[in-house]
Structures are given as structure tokens and as C-alpha cells.
Protein 1
Amino acid sequence: MWNSFLTDSHVSVLAEIITYKGGDGDEIHAYFAHPNDDNVRGGIVLLHHNPGWDEFYQEFAERLARHGYNVIAPDLYCRLGHGTSDDATAKMRVLGGIPDEQVVKDSRAALEFLNALPTANGKTVVMGTCSGGRGALLVASLVPEFNGVIDLWGGNVVTPEDQLTPDRPVAIIDYTERLNMPLLGLFGNDDKGPSPEQVNIHEDKLKELGKDYEFFRYDGAGHGFFYYHTERYRWEQAMDAWEKVFAFLTKILAN
Amino acid sequence: MCTMIASTKTVQGSGKGATGWFPVTQSSVGYDHASHFPEEHAMLLDFVNYELGTDARVAVELNLASARALVAQLQDAIERAELAGV
């Protein structure tokens, strides 16, 4: 929970950009944040949003690490070259996006990285915001070794057939049958992607297939309501949602 | 939302970026999350030359009304240039 640390505790976090062996054995960058002690703990693969592997995601990873988890946030645009995060994102757009298959491979490799740590307790969650939320659902559906998934307003989960592409050949909702781990979903009711109607369609599918999920929807919030660096930030909704995130992580990643 | 609306064309021209003028080889037009413009989405115009590096880029973010006005402005200038025969 937020502000639950004890004032006589010695919270210490290490956070750095590393390289790890991603999908297909490629060395790619990741932001790796973890408590600076030898205690055994759960891990989180954090998938960044469409605007890139940016400073928000570094701080996001650090916050999760401060709450006691090993966190790896792969740079999913790493193979495109380097520069500022907005330059890398522009290049991603020019080159047509990142294939779903690559996201799955890099995430599976990140899971293996976490599980090989001496402090790993063998439990991991995959999570992300925006396209990272979509990516988290994709990965959770295809990599059953994860123990839970958090989708923060991932768009394009419900995708019309005419919008599928060779790089994104399957609508994420059509993987629901294969999703066999608890799912936490957090959404803003003013969001247009996913719209409340799309969230309902997704929820209906989860219900129909008897999946383990919890969805929370916030009035007065749109897309990206955690983003304190934008006008979209909604502090009340974000703080409530953070509590739900921490509660889910506590439940799934407990030793 | 991530719209994933984007298209890229080969172009000939020059652009002035962070390190000065360079030949641009591709234009990209998208409508997706803005990096700087203070709205959720923007028309994202990029003129790039990736042979020179990821930062060989001239970027502009516009709202839809400005993008429409720009299209009209471009069309008007193109027609006048063609009429002038230059």
C-alpha cells in the first residue's frame, strides 16, 4: 500500500539500465529496479506504452521496486536504434510498429531473467499501460509461466478483423481462452480506446469463459490517468487504482 | 488510446533538425499519442533520414484543426506554384 513503509526501515532500491538476452538471443536494453537486499521476492515484467521506453516508465519501475519487487522493463524499441524516447517512438511509427511475436519473445526472456535471480521466489506478473496493457494481455495469454497480469487501459484488445495486420494478426480478445491466470484491469470511463463498450465486450468474454478477473472503471478519468506528467492525470482515481495494483501484486507475488 | 494510425512515404527534400540541415528521405504522418503537445493525441508529422541516425528528424505535432488548415495551405501553395509554372 502507498505510504505503508515503516519509518525505521531501511528502504533501498537499485535501479539501472542493463542489457539482457531478449527474444531471439538479441542483447536489448531494459530498466531493472529491485530492492537492495537479499530477500526473496516476486518479479514484475513491465511493458512500456506506445510513447516509448521513457522516464515515466523508469519511475514506474522504481515505484514497484520500492514496494518490494524485482522489476524489469524491457526497451521494446531497442532494435530500432537509440536516441531520445520520442525519437525512438517516431522511428517505430515510421517502420510500422513492433510485431506481437517480438513482444512475446522479449517478455518471455525477461521472465527468464527474473526467475534466474537469486532473490526470485518464482512468481511473476506481467503488466503495462496503454499498448503495454495490451501487450501484457497478449503475453499472459501466450506465456502461461506468468502468475498474473495487470492491464492498465490497454487499447485495441477488441480489434475489428479489418484492422488486423501481419504484425498483429490476432485480436487479443480472441486469446482469452488461453488466458489462465488472474487478471486485474483498470480503466477510465472517458477513454475512447478502450471505450467503456469495448471493456464490456472484453468482460463479457472473460465471464463467458469463466476466467479469474477483476475490472475497475473510474468516472472522471480517461486514457492514461496515472500520467502525472500530462493533463490526463487524475490523482484520486490514480491513487485508488494504485491501491488495487498493490493489493493484486501482494496477493499474486507473496512468498 | 493507441490509434496506430500512421503511414510513411519516400520523399525528397531537406529538413533542419537538432544538428542542422540534412536531406530528408521519408515522411511519416500519424495520429497518435503526442510527445509534447498538451492533448492526448496529435497529428504527428516527422521528416527523417535514418541513414543519419535516429535523431535525424524534424518533428511537428498539430491538433486536427491545424492539420486540416495545413492541408489546405499546402494545396493552395501547390496550385499557385503549378499555375505559375515554376
Protein 2
Amino acid sequence: MGGIRYPAQMPMSCSLSALGMVNALGSDTARIWQRALAGDTGAMARRPDLTAGSQGLVGAVDDTALPRIPAHLQRYDCRNNRFTLQALEQIESEVTEAVRAVGPARVGVVMGTSTSGSRECEAAILHEYLHGELLPEFRYEQLELGGAAGFLAELLELGGPALSVSTACSSGARALASARSLLALGVCDVVLAGGSDSLCGLTSHGFASLKATAGGGTNPFSANRDGLNLGEGAALFLVTRETTGIQVLGVGETSEAHHISSPDPEGSGAAASMREALADAGVGANAVSYLNLHGTGTRLNDSMESLAVSNVLGDALPCSSTKPLVGHCLGAAGAIEAGLCWLAIGAASDDTLPLIPHRFDGVRDPELPPIRLVNDGETAAPGIVLTNSFGFGGNNCTLALGSAPS
Amino acid sequence: MDLVIRRFSAWSTTGDETEIVSDEDWKTWAASPAALGREGKPPVAFLPPAVRRRATRLTRLMVETAFACTTDEERGSVRTVFSSRHGAIHVAIKILASIAKEEAVSPLQFSHSVHNAQAGLFSIASGNREASSSVAGGTDTFAHGFLEAVLHLERRPEQAVLLVTGDEPVPDNVAHLVHEPEAAYATALLIARDGPGTRLHFSLDPKGANAQPCAWPDAVEFIRFLHAGDDALSIGRGRSQWRWVRATA
């Protein structure tokens, strides 16, 4: 029996041992890191073919070389799962070795997603509208949220849990929190965890209906900001109990009790989430080297997040939003942004942490509490890295990542 | 792993649409369980009228049982897990139909199309600012929701977790693709590490033989198990078997 036990004392280590990732910047982590560090916004483009209903730029994945879903798993075929499969292929040897070492029964999957197969369902429903019946090849597993994790578990013939987490834009971060607890409880010895989401009509029309999408490029913390750019992609971590390498050191998670689709303007839920992540990691604000902002580029997020950051972390901590580079990847955003932080920590030397610059038009909104936005070529002393994810329904999650304490 | 079910509640209807709400109703149902109804709609009388008017059936089901399972004080202080296989599929399919017809998408509908809409509305209605996750696990959604609740206990052993599970029959146009007993129902379990209540040992057996699937949702089978006083319960419609054993002490 897979006995479940509470930890005797402190939670054991939670290592992000390998990372596969695909987003607008590229389909391998080397290329993604190179472009992210350069602050390359060149991947953002208008794609009416992928986002009917939205005028602004989006961060679309180059889908010309996406892998095919194996024939026996066609019922899981959707753009999201193709992203996940591409991310998996990048770390296939590490995953195979880890699964072999502990046995497939001890391996679990946690995936964050908000769209799952909404894109494929949209095509099926359009077919129904035009021809009176759903696309004949449409399957429920393509659409359902559980398919995000179920697909990987079936593909790799794993025996552990296959959990899909869907708390809107904090889903991908939250998946790593669940993965860490699965290891700490002893339910699993290895977990594959991350997030995947695709551009689709539901989200592009939906955010446009809320007047939340930018007319052009997103411009977080600028006086001229006018909304978010959507993005898509997947990030998949191999999560193990290794005591070396890059670790999940802390998790902060709060609800807002405020509004279904807008944050508390005082940023109290966001601030509590960051404070809890620091407390969970057992460090103070002065241990933090960099914060990856939620930074969607909406007026409400700009004001509440800069207020929360200045309250908890002060106005000297280097911060950037990576959404001007890859777009807002919604249910995958928390995993993708944790992935970008993972790449930064991995690229650090003993005394230098490279930082991803904050791209905007440079016109700081004077009404916002001052936070320090990263300039080109800036570095920091290595330390804890935080990443913020805030979602609809008032669901906040902050992850604290860093190298294993030596 | 050992835990305590401190309190539980459930809401559904019988096949002839008679409400099953109170402990007595559920004890009667558990004595001769049968398939559940597809239509029930709890009153959620405690919600402000404007919120109640907009509440979907799933929101009514989940929020009603969440409130029934908690005191005022608990409601503001528990962590929450909301688990649902289908979530807001009725809202999502309405939006996709609007898109197909090239009609405007309603911002209100879009805001309520997220899987954590019920969790968000519960947080707002109860003033709860604690951690909350919303999950799905295909045909084994209840078991995965239970697991996520246990993962919250790992992070904060001293804080009880409210697990709310619910679904309703999927829209007619996709019904032929879903092969699982469907009903309009929700259940709520207040789960803690210790304290008064039903003590259980919970485990996952990846190689376990599939349990005999019941004709009602797994979450309701768990309520039947609690009322019937059985020694153990095994559930598993997918790759694994999940098992709860009542502690004898």
C-alpha cells in the first residue's frame, strides 16, 4: 500500500531537478533563457487566427514543430497537451531515469491549467452550430481539466495521483505547492509538475469583454498601460527529494474575499501571500534577490501589486514582469514564470544572479508606489527569488525558490 | 495517513426529485442507496439576493453544503479545496456557443467560467482569506480532491480543511461523451489532523483492483460510507484505488 505519513519534523527538501518549457520565446530552455535575459519582446505579435476577438499582441508558441499525441492517447489530443509533451521531451532522459529509480507507482503528476482543451471544444461547438453535431472526433478528455494531468500519467504509465489544479492564473504556481506536499507526505517519491495553457477564443473574447486586453503591447507599471497580452505555453518540472540544486523553499497562498474578477485594491491578499512565502522559507525580506511580478499590465494589478511589493519587500528590490516577453499564459503562467526564475538561478555564479529586464515604455506611473524595475544588464547578489501569481476568484500564490542551503 | 472527519454535509435529490439534505434524509438514503436526481437547486438563502440571482446551479450546490458543514467561525478560518470534474462546463459551453454565433461574450459569464468560481464566491460570502485550491481528477475527482485536502494538512497541520465536491449533469450536447453516474449534488467534509469526529486512515494503492463502481458519484458514496458505519471504503474508477479505513480506537 502507498502509505501516507505526515513529516516527523521539518518538510524535506523539494528539488526542481529538471525543467522542460515551451512558450513564445522558444521551444527549449537555452533559447528561452537567452531571449528572456535580452528582454526580447520580438515574439509578441498579432495573431487573429489564434485569438479572434482580441486586437492586441499575444505570445504564441511556434507550433510548426509540436509533437503529435501518440495514437492510443488521441482522446487527450489538444494544444495544451502537445505543449506538455514537447516540454516532457526536453527532459525525457532525466524523467525516465527518475521514474525507473523509484518505480512508476511512486510517481505522481500535478498540472495547473485553466483552458485545458477549450480550444478544441470551441471547434467542436462551431461544427455543431454549422452542421448540427459536434465534431465527430471530439472527446471529453480533450476538454476536461483532469486531462492535463491524466494525459501525462497515462503516457508514462504512472501509478501515482494525477491531479489537475485550476485556480485561474495561479494554477501553475499552485501545482508546485501540491507537488512539494506530495513528496513531504510520502505519497510520491517523484512528481512531474507544472502547467499548460493555450490561446483560445474563450479567454481572448473573455478578457476583451472585461476590457482587460491591451490595444498593442502590454506595458506594466507605465502611466500609459492599457491592459494585458495573452500568451500560451507549458512548463514541466521534474520534482524530487534531491537535497542539491534549485529548491522550492517556500509557498504563500491566500484568498482575497473581495471580488470574483478584480483584486483587493489595497493589495492585502497579495502582500499576505508574499509574507507567507518568506515565513515558510524561514527568511526575511532582506534575503530576497529578485521578484518576478505578476505584472499583467492592467491598472488594478499595477496599483495593488506595487503597493503590496513596496509594503513587504521595499522599493530597492529588483523586480520585473516577464509578461511583456511571453504574454500572460494564465493557468501556465505560474509554472512558466517559476521556470524563468529557475533558469536565472541556474545561470547564477557564486556572486552574481542575472536578472530579466522589465520591458515597458519607460514612462513610470507617478501615482504608483515606487518599486525598482530591472534595467538591461542588471544583476543582483544571489539569494531567494520570489514569483507572484494572482488569479480570478481572488486566489494568490507566491513561490520562494533558491539554491539548496549549503 | 490518519485524519479526522469532524463534520460532513451533502445536498442532492432522489430520482423523483425529492431533496436529500438533512442527516436523517441521508441516513434513510444510505439504508437503501439509489441513483440521484439531476435537477436539484439549493436555496442558498444566506447569500445576498444579487449574488443568489446570478449563482449557477453548481455554485448553489457547493456553497450551500460548504455553509452547512461549517460554523461561522470555522467558515472564516478553514483552508478550502473545491473539487469538481466538470466545473463550470455549462458556462463555458454557453460562451463557446456565443462565439460560434459571433455574439458578444458576457464579461459576467466569463468571470464565472473559471474552475475556482465557487471557491471565490465562498471566500467572498464567508470573508475567508485562507489558502484555497480548486482541482479536478477526471473520473477520480473526489479522491484527488481528498488528497489535495490532505496536502493542505501537510502544509498547515493545525488548520482544518473544508473539502467541497460537487457536479451537475453535463450539457446535453456532450452527455454522450461522459460515462460516469451523473447527478446534481455536492458534499462537504471538514477534515483535520485530530479532534472529535470519525477517525480514518487514508491511502492510495496504485496496483489495487478496481472497486465495484457505484451508481452514484464517489463523493456521495463517501457520505454513504460515513452514515452506514462500514469499516472501510475503496474507490477507484481509473488507474488507482483509494482506500479509507475506520480507526478502531
Protein 3
Amino acid sequence: MRDFDYIRPATIPDAIAAAAEPGSAYLAGGTNLLDLMKGGITSPERIVDISRLPELNRIERLDYGGLRIGALVRNADLAHDSAFASTYPAVAEALLSGASAQLRNAATVGGNLLQRTRCSYFYDTASACNRREPGAGCDALGGENRLHAVLGWSDACIATHPSDFCVPLVALDAVVEIEGKKGRRHVTLEEFHRLPGETPQRENALEPGDLIVAVRLPAEAASFSANARYLKVRERTSYAFAVVSAAAALVVDGGKIRAARLALGGVAAKPWRARSAEAVLLGADANEASFASAADAALADASPSGDNAFKIELARRIVVRVLMSALSGTPERLPALPASPFSNIPGVRHDA
Amino acid sequence: MTLELSLNQQPAHARQGSSIGQPLTRRDGFLKVTGAARYAADNHPPGMLYAVLAVSSIARGRVAALDVEAAKAHHGVVEVMTPKNRPALAADPDAKDHPFMFRLDLLQNDQVRYPNQSIAVVIAETLEAATEGAALLSPRYESLPARVGLDGAESFVPRGVGIGSPAVHHKGDVEVGLKSAKTRIEATYETPAQYHNAMEPHAIVVAWDGDRLSIDTPSQGLAMAQGRIAGLFGIAPENIHIRSPFLGGGFGSKGMISGPQVLGILAARLVGRPVKLVLRREQMYGPVGHRAPTRQTLRMGMDGEGRLTAIDHHARTASSTFDDFFEPAADASHTLYASPAIATSHDAVRLDTGTPLFMRAPGEATGSIALESAIDEAAHACGMDPLEFRLRNYAEVEPMTGKPFSSKALRECYRQAAETFGWASRPLQPRLMRDADGFLTGWGMGTATFPAIMFQAEAHAVLRADGSGLMETGAQDMGQGAWTAFAQIAADGLGLDIDRVEFRAGSSDLPNAGIAGGSGHTATAGMAIHNAGAAVIARLADLATGNEASPLFGAGNEGVLARGGRLYRRDDESRGESYAEILTRAGLTEIEGHGKGAPDPASQETYAKHAHGAVFAEVKVDPDFGQIRVTRLVGAFAAGRVINPRLVRSQYYGGMIWGISFALHEEAITDRRSGRIQNANLAEYHVPVNADVPSVEALLVHEDDPYVNALGIKGVGEIGITGTAGAVANAVWHATGVRPRRFPIRIEDLLG
């Protein structure tokens, strides 16, 4: 195999110093990186294994009502933390709808944000991909692209971000806590991921050496716990990426929407915060007509990047449904098939 | 080859046992769940090197350059095998002496004829070094445009389809039948390329010793593999020892030795050390076969009573540019529904893909989903319930040939499955059922069928003076439970309790058990075992009945019964003695017998032999999203005698789940420009997961068949896919009112 240096730093500063060298990559759960390395999609010269850094695996409640989730907290541990799941039910639901039980046991919070697209042309090193090799071109354009982006894409790249977890997070104004050479800084998740534009290889706000140390949820994120859902349409019941997904969170009072959050997954190179739809919802009557207007607003700028026009109409319908689900209230316990349209089928007790 | 026991003749010496029919758990189950079962790639002979394939990323053209020096310079790399230094073969890998000799890519030249074709082999001290060496070859190609898709090349009518069936068949005149019909339907259905995707990749561990070969590799046909390798290397078959005790699935892709496996042998030859070669998952999408795509058009005519007046079934399929395997999809219309006129035809295109191959229910699966969909459309056009329509067109004789069926309990399958499912309350019109949560609910059905095929097999039986027995046959357990079912047949064949029988299989130095394929392994090797048991019991009976000291003396004309390690007079069961007593008196440590299994030519000529079944499916469809879930499947199958109901049920479950997969999940997504498969991994090539299969029920319908073979076995390995895929598609129509015409059914097909 291709030789690389393997470094296991004892402290965060050591990790950052090691990873600031060109050709470095952090290793946490490895659920994406190792596959990328085996496939020759990425070939880091230096692996900085942060998986044993002690201070990154804690879930901390912050004084002002917020929550700080360490970057190394495992997806499964976070989803099954009952306090977390009851306060941020849409996030827990999204986590449990992702990947498989084995992957969720290994995958980390920080790694989830940094997972690469599942565009097959990105993985197929014989294909042109601007994301993998800037300037090479995009073979997804004009190729097999029925699952590709319908929002925010460019002629340079039509890939989507595959995360479920990030969708409710971006809706809830999550903030990424980054430690770098110049110290600690905070970037909203909405600004963290970039749209491709002319530089699809620049996927996020990280600079060399930057380490995601935590994801923060602001105090306000907890105010939606009674009316928050995640909905994911996919092509098998489990272990499949979203065709389109959506997270919705509402505060409803006297039939009026007092606060609304909406984000879409599987539609763009980043988790897609639908602010224009939120604007439509704010102060509106909490009913299907308002939700349909919001759906139109959310998809107003959508356009097919290939054989995927159906995703636009699908996304509209998902927006309406997820808002209806949020309005009808967070279920008392997480459904057996989290985020599935079929989560209500009685007698079904799968939670994978 | 003749049978020791002809089918309808009372055997001189009857054997009675209690093993056949018992739901024994797998005898290899403990080994497998504890990880102790040794699969091919678990073998590491001393001095073994690792071989890794470099494969083509283009579909068509030639390899212009390989950076062999860079690969060889990588630490740990021992050798790079290319067309320039590949050891000579005794036979041309492109020769085709018979239809089942498939052409292999063994680095015979620099041509590339499909993506993932082997273009070099890197051999190294470690897997990692070989892998990196393969990457360092950085091939440069001269490429030509790829021919992709069922319209990607000029079509032609192949000489034969499947296993030598004519491409065109007809009886009666379908145009006349269609003209006379009161109601007609015509519909076209598309099925995609699918890949076998056995859990265990093709793997081989090879050690040469002079001109002797020791091989560990998964094989569904040990003797065929042995013969093919012998021919390629110019050595005697008996110099080749292949061990294949367990297969992690085969589904047809391990029926013939594949190119990559032979390259492992060549690599070991080149370096003079043992070599292991294991395909990576994505490398299984090319050189080890696949199910070809099809486009099928069915036309049917029905009279005023809903009786078929004509079935016309045409299938377009594809093979590779360099070899022939044509998915016999339209032949599915030969056997199921009565019609005075039936026509089936095939045409094909040649594409830049690996050669397609048998894949679980080849032709039957693809043909069944189209035929069962069309039958559903025809029933609806006649305003009839789909079950009533099928019963109205029930074939009392095989429709295409007019032969009587050796047995056919399909009516009983329909009855039992429909009753268990609750079919009677189904509304005729679609999109009428909703559940409490508002999901569209639909019920559909399909008829399952698969021919009862037998090949040729041999077995060797031994009875020992300690009263124990041995049964040997080179049978192959690919997960279906052969280790257990054959041991059960052996126990009864020897008249012993199963604990007293040593059963050996999975090795090429045992008698040829034929191929584990065509759903015929249990019948074929089972009959060999049964007959070997008969032979050794006959020998034992001779020893007893001819000896004055035996209580069985003189019973020869009446015959004896063998049971529980003792022989009894058939006319007086109070008189008997143990095997041990007989052998000890005769001064023998052991006696042996041989048996063969083969189809009976006479009954072959007279009867149509098929297993049958009926499958009912319930689906729920989200009315807004088009996401589908199969919430219930009930199948009832009649396939002759059941050796082990637990294993048989598992086979049906597996087949039925594959039917869901066919209807809703499986598709090799091929780039329309490059011809490369874009989802060559198990994350993106979808097969059902547990959550997709909440409820599956398989009912075993009793069926006695005196004509298929003396044991009455038909075969259960493939039938479960047939019927099921169509049942799911028909249930989707019933739920939504949208008729699926391409598979797998996609969300966008149902969004409306």
C-alpha cells in the first residue's frame, strides 16, 4: 500500500501542529476516510489519529442553555443519549436514520460533517471530477445523475452532501467549534459547508490544520423539542442515503407559527437551510396551505442538474409532510423506523 | 449411464430411514457462526504470496502501456504478470469447444473488451504491496467508444439462448389468436443488468508441486473446474485437487472457473510459490458473469371468458462482444399458461461488457416478472381477479409441448397461499385500499415455476464392520445446506441413523457430484447417494442371505429391509441382524458400493417436470413520495419431496427476498458513455436489508412425484425469485394504479 506517516498526538495542539503539514488528514471513526484511501480517491501522506484525544468525546450542557457536543462523540452514543434525544428529537431521528448500526457505532460527530459526497464519479477515479481533481471536469454532468443536486449546483459540480445529521443541525443554527493554528473560532454550520461554484474542491471553511473540536447547539434550539421531525425518503428502508430529506422544527402558539426552522438534505452540496421558506412560515397559520407556500419558496430556485427533476417535486412534498409531522408533535418515543415515511406502521419494531 | 434403480421398480432391498423429512439444523452451522469454517481465502500455505488484479477502466480498446517498472520497484512486489511474461497455456482461452466453455481473459493479448477486465496481475509479499503495485501500473489506453445499452449495437437473432434452447419457438398462430381475441394487451417491460454479488468474493489459493496443483477455491462444479483447468494447463485432471468445502454464495457466478481464478493459478506458476488471489468487490462487476438486461414485449389475446387465445413474448437481451450467453427470458412463457397459440422469440445486441452468465433463475427470473406483470394486465383488461384469471388459464399439460406434467400441485399452492394471505377480500380495481396511516395498499400475485433439472453425479458408499457408514461425493455446499440434506439422504440410503454416517463432500478427489446449479443438485447428487446406499446394502444383503449362519439366510427372494443399522427380513421383521454382525461373520472390515444420479431418459421424454408455486405480496406505498415497502409476502411451493423443511424454507425465503430485490432494488447503474458500472459496491448496489423484509412466509405444499426420480425431488433453489418479483410489481400497481414497466421500480415512476 501507499506509505503514510501515522501520528497519534496526545493533545489538541500537537494534533493541529501535525495536521498543519501539507498532505495531512485527521482520522477519527474512519468510516469514510479509510474507504477513500483504499479506493485511491485520497492519498494522505500523514494520518493524524485523533480518535483517542480524551477531551473530545463529551456532551456538555452549557451555562446559557446551549449544548456542546465533542467532535469524537459517536453517532450512536449521541442518538441514544436520552436527554439529548428528548431535547433535540429531530437530530436524534436523523442520526438513527443514517448508515447502519455498525457504522453509527464508529462514526463521529466531527467526521459526519466532513464526510465526502457519495457522487459515484467522485469515487470512480477513472472519471473526471473537479472535486477530486480540480479542473478535470465533471462526468456527473450528462452521466448517471438522477440522485444529484437540484439546488446550489454549478457546472463544475452537481454532487450532494450525504449527511442526515447535518440537516436538522443546520436548521437549529448549530455552530462548528474549530481549533486551529490561530486559536479557537466558531463558524455556523450554515456557513461551514460551501457550495461548489468554480471551486468544488473547497468543501468547507477549514484551513490546513484546523480541527473540529465540537458542535454547539444554541439555547434556542431546545425550544423546538415539542415540534421537531426529520423525514428521509430513500430507496430501501435502511442503509441508504437520502434521495431527499428534510428537517422541520416549529414553535406554534394559538394556531400561528411563532418560530420555524426548515432544512433539506440530499439536494445540494451542503445541508440546505431553507430560510426563504422559514420567512413564509413565520407568523403564518399553522396549516397545510402555509406549508405548501413554504415548500414552493424552499424550492423556488431549484433546477434539475440532470435526470433528477423529480427530486424537486419530491422535495416540495417532503417539506409539506415534515412540517405537518412537526406540527402534529414530536412522538413520545423515537419511531421504530426513524425518519421513514413508514415509521408509523404498527407492529414494526426495527430501529435500523 | 444407467440407474441402479429404475424409477417405478420396487427395489429388491428397501431401506427405511427417518432422516429424510426432518428439519435438522445445518451440520456446518456451528462452524460458520463461530468463524471456524474455513473458506478458500482463509488458507495460507507456507511461503504464500498475494496476487492482486489490475483491471481495465475502459470498456473497449487496448492497453498501450503499463508502468511495470514502477510496480516492481515498490517494496514487497515480487513480480508483475502481463501478456509479455504470462506463462504459456496449453489451450487458447478464447477457444470454445462447447457452449459451456466460456472464453476467459487470461492476459492473452493487450485487448480490452469490457471494464474491469484483468490487464495485469501484481504478486507481492503482502496484500498491501500487491495492491499498491497494481495502482502503480498506471495503464495508458487507446480506447474506442463503448457500446452500452440494449440499443447500443445492431441487433441479431442468436443461434440459441440459455442452455441451447432455440431463440424462436412457436405453437399455433399467435396472429390468428390475437385477431380472434375479444380483449388484447401489449406491454413492454425492462429489466436491468444485475450482478450475483455473492458475499464471498471469488478467491483462490494455489500451490503448484511440479505438474500437480493444489487449489482452494469456491466452486459450484468441482469436476468441471478441474476439467477446465486441466485443459488450460495441459495436465491430467487427477493431478488437480480442488477443495471447496464452503461457498459464501455462488448463484451461478461460481459455476464455471472464472478468468481471475485461473490468473491466480498462472501467477503461482510464474513465481513458483503458492499464491492467493481474491477479487475486490468492484472487480466482481465484469469477469465473473452477470444477469444481462432485457427488454420484453408481451402481447396477449383473451376471449370473452378470459381464456388466452395467444401469448407472444419477445425478449431483447445482450451478450458480450466476444462470447455467447443469452438470457432466455421469453422461454418463461413456455410452461405456465394454457393458450392455443404461443410464440417466443429473442434477439440480442453485443455490448462492451463481461459475458453474462447464469444468475439464479436465469431467464426464469427476468421472464417471470414480465410474464406475471402481463398476466396481471390481461386479467385486469378482462375485468377478472388475477387468481381467477390464472385458474381460468391453468395449464393441464405443458403448454408449449403438450406433455403431461410429472406432477403439478399448483392449484393447491394457489389455494393455500391465497387463503393464508387473505386474498379473497381484494378489491378488483387499483388504488382503493388505504391503511389507517393513509398509505396506499396493494395486493398482487405471481405464479412461480422452475424446471426440475437433473445433471449427472456419482457417489461412493462404505459400510464398516463397526456398524458405521461413509458416504462420499464431491458435492458443493454454497450455503443452501448440502452438507445437511445429503447427509440425511445418505443416512436413509445406508439404513443408518445420521450420527452413524460420515459424510464427505466439497473436494475434487471425491466422486463427481456434478454442478450445484439449476436447482438440480439435491436431486442429482441425492440420487447418486441414494443409489450408492442401495448398492452397498445389496452387497450386505448378499452376504447375509447367502450365509446359513445368518437369520436372514434364504431371504433373498423376498428381500430385506435396512433400518437403524440392521437388516430385517421383509416378510418377517422379527428376523434380522446388525450390519456389524454380518460383516464380522464375513471377515470383512468394510464393503463398498457406487451409485449414480442422472435424469431418466424415458421419463424425460414423456413428462414435463417443473416445480410450481404461488406468491402473494402486500405493498404499502407512500402516496406522496412513491416510497414502497413490501409488508407481507406469502408463498406456497410444491417441489416434490422435501428432504429438510427447515433448509427448504430458507431457500424459499432467500428466493422470495431476491424477488423483492428484483422488483424494487437491484440494478447495475452503467454510465451511458463509458460503460463503467457506477455502483459496483454493496452500499450503492442495493439489495434488501432486514427492514425491507418485515414478513415472509413460505408454505410447503405436499407433492408426490413418481417420475422425476426415485426420491421424488424436484429442486427449490431458484423458484422463489420467480413469481415473487411479479407479485410485488402487481401489488405496486394495485396500490397505485401505476403499472410498473421498468425494474427496479423507482420513486419517480410513482410520483405522478
